[in-house]
Amino acid sequence: MEVDLDINIRRSGAAALVLGASVSAAPAEVIEYACLFDSVSRPGENISAADLVMGLAWDSETNAAYVKDEGRPAVAVHIHGEPGGLTFMEPLAGGAVNVTTVAIDGRASHSRNTLAGEPDPEFSPAQFYGYCGWIR
Question: Is the pLDDT of residue 23 over 50?
Answer without folding.
Answer: no
